[in-house]
Amino acid sequence: MTFVYRENIEALRPDLLEKYGPVFRRIAEGTVDRERNRILPHEQIKWLKEAGFPAVRVPREQGGDGGSIVDLAALLIALAEADPNIPQALRGHVVFSEDRLFAEPSLDRDIWLKRFAEGEIAGNAWTEIGTVGLWQTATSVKKDGDTLRLDGRKFYTTGSIFADWIDVLARREDGVDVVALVRKDSDGVTVSDDWDGFGQRTTGSGAAVFQSVVVEPQNVLLFDDRVPYQHALYQLVLLASLAGIGRAIVRDTAEQIRNRTRVYSTGSGPSDRQDPQIQQVVGQLAGLAYATEASTIRAAAAIQRVFDAKVAGPDAVKAANDAAHVEVYSAQIIVTEFTQRAGSLLFNALSASAARETHALDRHWRNARTISSHNPVINKERIIGDWHINGTAPPINWSIGVPVATPGTGETAAAAE
């Protein structure tokens, strides 16, 4: 498994692909079986942990690979080509590890980076379903004597079932939003694999319940201090997953065609592999995959510029962050559309036998459609249009929930983004 377009991206480090490529290939061997039988990739994520993947971004002097965000995105694309469920399962870890990396130097920061270098990963537990209001959370961190305790219920806790730590959005008694880090094996933590979506079925998503879980004070972080490009990075992981699906579509379609012996009498060549119309379809798929990968890498480079801007101060970070969100959202518009299109188009090159469950080729469209639904692209199209027309800065945080009534007015309003 190689980066087809690596020569066009100067920032990529081939040594990282050489390090992790064999693991990705090993993961790819069982992807169809896991997909068809809904087998969670516990073992495959263990391989990645043992290889050092949780520390791709950790500096070399602290035990990591010292990779850039572009390096990370490229590796996630290659991993998604092997199995797109796994990059999404690692999405919470990617963002929390970046948060610790962006934080000011401290002993606590060093402890976390050491944990990542030792293979520990973090899952996420941020979203609540039901009647929770916009910008609200029912999950709490409260004092119980000298102890802090976490209580709440989350959903869409993607990857937490595989994790060592869980990154939980909660609210303190004084109304301040915080992020609490608890070990998954702590007393009172229950994580379930009850995601019932038609795609991305092995991401380990579902519910997480926290019942009077003890939280160490140093593991309660202010939400306002969170890495400023966290949502752009969350979206980048999804873009990389989609770009990997695009590459897998080209790979699987070409392989099916190469191995075909039957042809239609209405075809345009002596074999499918020599049929110019079928060759054209594969060419279209390759072009779509090229565009999605290039868009994702460009978005990653924009996020890297935010990280690099930290040395220049807050104003430079804000300017770079606004620009990065514009690029990421612009990439989302293209990547979601092109990957879904490719997931359907591939069947134009194949006959009815390609629809058999043994091939599981439908997984590409189902997975792409599911990933694309996480952050509605119609909202991003509006945001990008407002940016180009009016210069309105894109939101760097957003919420989902029931509109909250403004006291005394009977009207609804959302807190400022």
From TrEMBL:
Domain Acyl-CoA dehydrogenase C-terminal: 241-375
Residues covered by the Acyl-CoA dehydrogenase/oxidase N-terminal domain: 28-94
Domain spans labelled Acyl-CoA oxidase/dehydrogenase middle: 136-213
Cell compartment(s), UniProt: Cytoplasm
Principal place of residence: cytoplasm
Keyword Flavoprotein on entry: yes
UniProt-listed Enzyme Commission number(s): 1.14.14.21
Source lineage: Bacteria, Pseudomonadati, Pseudomonadota, Alphaproteobacteria, Hyphomicrobiales
Native source organism of the sequence: Pararhizobium capsulatum DSM 1112
Catalysed reaction, written as an equation: dibenzothiophene + 2 FMNH2 + 2 O2 = dibenzothiophene 5,5-dioxide + 2 FMN + 2 H2O + 2 H(+); dibenzothiophene + FMNH2 + O2 = dibenzothiophene 5-oxide + FMN + H2O + H(+); dibenzothiophene 5-oxide + FMNH2 + O2 = dibenzothiophene 5,5-dioxide + FMN + H2O + H(+)
Family that this chain belongs to: Belongs to the DszC flavin monooxygenase family.
Protein known as: Dibenzothiophene monooxygenase
Any one Pfam family match given in the protein's UniProt record, by short name: Acyl-CoA_dh_M
Pathway it works in: Sulfur metabolism; dibenzothiophene degradation
Keywords: Flavoprotein, FMN, Monooxygenase, Nucleotide-binding, Oxidoreductase
Top-level taxon of origin: Bacteria
